[in-house]
C-alpha cells in the first residue's frame, strides 16, 4: 500500500479522513474494547474504505497507539527489545521506558489512559486487552520458561508503577536519580521477573 | 482523650460533627496538600474545637486516611511491618497489601486517589506529601543503608504498580495466581529495593 500514488491536491482530504478515522477509532476502542474493535468497523464509522485505514495507520495495534496519542507503538518497542534475545532485555526495556518518559513528560498520554481506566470499566478493559495483545503476549511468546503469563504481568506491574510513581505522584527520588542508575535497578527487577526462578 | 465521658444524647451531634470535620478535611487536603493542612484549620472550617478533631480522628495522618476513606492508615501498617526489623519486611508488606486489596476490592478508595492524582496536580501533590510523611519517611528512617530515600521510592513504585495492574487494569495472571505466591515474588522485590546492594 505504501507505494500507492497520492495526488498532491488530496492533502486536505487526507487530513480530513485521518481525523475522522482517529476519532472513530478512539470511540470504538473506548466503547467496545481493543479485541472487539475491527478496522472494518472503524472504517464504516469514518465513512472510508478499510484499505485507507490500513494505508494511513497500519495494523490495529498501530491504529490504537495513534488514536490514543501514545508517543510510540508499545508492541513495536517490545519486539525490538526482545529481538536480540531475552538476555539483558530487562535493562533494554527499562532504559527505553525512562528515555520515552523523559521525552514526553509532562503531558504523557499514558497518564490519560490510566486516569480513564481508574474511572471507567470499559477503559480498563480496553487497556487490559491492548496490553495483552500488543505487549504481554509478545513477551510470553518470547519466553522459554514456566509461568510465562505471570512473568509478563509482573513486568507490566513494575512498568506501570514506575510511570505512576514518577510521573503522576512525582516522587522526588525517582525524578532526581540518574536515569542510567534507575534503568539498572528496574532492569534487574524486570529481568528477574522474566527469566529467573520465581 | 479516649477516657473523656460522652453523654448518650450527644450521639447525633457527634455524627454531625464527624461528618463536618471529614468534609472540611477532605477539602483542605485536596486544595492545600497534606503538608499545609493543619488540624486547627480543619477545625475552624468545621466550626469545632481542634481538640474535638484529635478526639475523633487522632493524628493528621489518621484524619487523612479517614477523610480519604482509606481501608487503613498506611503509616500505622508500615510501622507495624517494620517493628520486628528490616529482615523479611518485604514479604510482610507484600502479604498485607495483597490481603487488604482482596478485602476491599473492587471499590478500593486507593483507586479514587490515583484517579484524582492523574487528573489534578493538587491531588498529586497531596498524595506525594502524604506518602512521603506517612510511609516513605518511616521506611527511610528504619533503614541503615545508603540511598534510603531512593529505596523507599522504589518500593512505592512497585506497590502502586501492583495495585494499578491488578485492581485497575485487572491483568488476569495477577488475579488468579495464589496470593502467597505473589506475596513471595513481590516481597523479594521489595526486600531487594530496601536492603540489598543497588
TrEMBL record, chains A, B:
<dbReference type="GO" id="GO:0000976">
    <property type="term" value="F:transcription cis-regulatory region binding"/>
</dbReference>
<dbReference type="GO" id="GO:0003700">
    <property type="term" value="F:DNA-binding transcription factor activity"/>
</dbReference>
<dbReference type="InterPro" id="IPR009057">
    <property type="entry name" value="Homeodomain-like_sf"/>
</dbReference>
<dbReference type="InterPro" id="IPR036271">
    <property type="entry name" value="Tet_transcr_reg_TetR-rel_C_sf"/>
</dbReference>
<keyword id="KW-0238">DNA-binding</keyword>
<dbReference type="Pfam" id="PF00440">
    <property type="entry name" value="TetR_N"/>
</dbReference>
<feature type="domain" description="HTH tetR-type">
    <location>
        <begin position="15"/>
        <end position="75"/>
    </location>
</feature>
<feature type="DNA-binding region" description="H-T-H motif">
    <location>
        <begin position="38"/>
        <end position="57"/>
    </location>
</feature>
<dbReference type="InterPro" id="IPR001647">
    <property type="entry name" value="HTH_TetR"/>
</dbReference>
<dbReference type="InterPro" id="IPR050109">
    <property type="entry name" value="HTH-type_TetR-like_transc_reg"/>
</dbReference>
<dbReference type="Pfam" id="PF17920">
    <property type="entry name" value="TetR_C_16"/>
</dbReference>
<dbReference type="InterPro" id="IPR041678">
    <property type="entry name" value="TetR_C_16"/>
</dbReference>
<protein>
    <submittedName>
        <fullName>Transcriptional regulator, TetR family</fullName>
    </submittedName>
</protein>
Amino acid at each position: 500500500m505504501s507505494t500507492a500514488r497520492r495526488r498532491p491536491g488530496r492533502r486536505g482530504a487526507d487530513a480530513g479522513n485521518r481525523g475522522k478515522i482517529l476519532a472513530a477509532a478512539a470511540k470504538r476502542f473506548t466503547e467496545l474494547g481493543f479485541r472487539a474493535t475491527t478496522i472494518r468497523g472503524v472504517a464504516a464509522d469514518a465513512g472510508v474504505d478499510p484499505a485507507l485505514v490500513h494505508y494511513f495507520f497500519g495494523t490495529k495495534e498501530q491504529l490504537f497507539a495513534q488514536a490514543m496519542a501514545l508517543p510510540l507503538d508499545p508492541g513495536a518497542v517490545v519486539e525490538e527489545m526482545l529481538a536480540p534475545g531475552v538476555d539483558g532485555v530487562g535493562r533494554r526495556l527499562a532504559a527505553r521506558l525512562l528515555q520515552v518518559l523523559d521525552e514526553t513528560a509532562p503531558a504523557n498520554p499514558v497518564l490519560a489512559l490510566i486516569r480513564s481506566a481508574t474511572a471507567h470499566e470499559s477503559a480498563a478493559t480496553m487497556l487490559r486487552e491492548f496490553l495483552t495483545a500488543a505487549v504481554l503476549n509478545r513477551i510470553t511468546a518470547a519466553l522459554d520458561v514456566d509461568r510465562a503469563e505471570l512473568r509478563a504481568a509482573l513486568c507490566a506491574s513494575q512498568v506501570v508503577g514506575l510511570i505512576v510513581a514518577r510521573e503522576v505522584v512525582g516522587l522526588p527520588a525517582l525524578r532526581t536519580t540518574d536515569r542510567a542508575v534507575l534503568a539498572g535497578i528496574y532492569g534487574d527487577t524486570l529481568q528477574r521477573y522474566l527469566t529467573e526462578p520465581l
